[in-house]
Amino acid sequence: MSRIAGLLIALLSLAQMSGCGKSTEIVRLDGPTMGTTWSARFAAHRAIDREVVLQAIRTELEDVVVQMSTWRRDSLISRYNNAAAGTWHELPESFAIVLEAALALAAATGGHYDPTVGPLVDLWGFGPGGRRDKPPAAADIAAAKARVGWQRIQFEAGTRRLLQPGGLRLDLSSIAEGFAVDRMGEALERLGIDAYLVEIGGELRARGKRPDGMPWRVAIEQPDSGDVPVTVVPLQDLSIATSGDYRKFFEFAGRRYSHAIDPHTGYPVQHGLAAVTVSASTCMEAGSTATALSVLGPQRGFDYAVRNDIAARLVIRDGPSGFTVRETPAFTALVDAH
């Protein structure tokens, strides 16, 4: 199931509202980015130049890509990853914000979220090096794992200087995408647009209300199964993101290997957690936390979310084709709010 399918109800609502009031127009813009697509829906209470808005969004997205995309050889993160040992690199403000957030989450989760997991991501075929159809050799996994460890990062927050100790490969994909969504929203706000729904690949940020005075409403992305009930979430000044093992994976000898890799083992997770949805104030936080819970697993992830008052919904595989859904109290309260 495409992540964009999670926007179905939101888009239907917008189509139904387009004729609700002559003074408010629902504007829709979209385009490609980061190997997926972006879209923006916003309420225009006045005449607005769509090209100005489009260029503002594209500028923000390109800025994130040239700084933090491991898929571009000339990006800042790629140059850092290939830099010589012992070299220091001064980071732009955006890169520093994302790295600080990633390090904080790594510390909070005991390293289950790790921004240095790049060597393992590449080895398992989920990075820019290309896909694979069978697991790598155990010796190669051990060698890649030896290069992973968020504690190796030496970052001076005050001066925004980052040391390359040698062989360290950052991968900020799971947090940079949400950050880019936040940057899209901030670009709209600078143009005076205070009611919008923006997303990249299904990670969403909502601000303000729809023209009918109600929150934006989105259907949560879920595994391809009729067994999981559709949940609709009201979003007002909130973000939401989903991480699932059904997006990027390969199967070998009857076993599924997903893109969610446990830095402690060096292997893709093998627990039954199929999908995690998290809502938070920023999309950067929602996306990265969903990834962290996916690695922690159904029980530890749920306990971590409850302990930290995180609005999270976990879809857990129950047998060959069944699923069990667990919601934290904060998530239940969010759904029941409207």
TrEMBL record:
The EC number(s) this enzyme carries: 2.7.1.180
Keyword Cell membrane: no
Leader peptide range in chain numbering: none
Name of the featured protein: FAD:protein FMN transferase
Catalysis: reaction(s): L-threonyl-[protein] + FAD = FMN-L-threonyl-[protein] + AMP + H(+)
Family, per entry: Belongs to the ApbE family.
Tree of life domain: Bacteria
Cofactor dependency: Mg(2+); Mn(2+)
Gene3D superfamilies found in the cross-reference section: ApbE-like domains (3.10.520.10)
Database matches in PANTHER family: FAD:PROTEIN FMN TRANSFERASE (PTHR30040:SF2), THIAMINE BIOSYNTHESIS LIPOPROTEIN APBE (PTHR30040)
Cofactor note: Magnesium. Can also use manganese.
Gene Ontology molecular function, alphabetical: metal ion binding; transferase activity
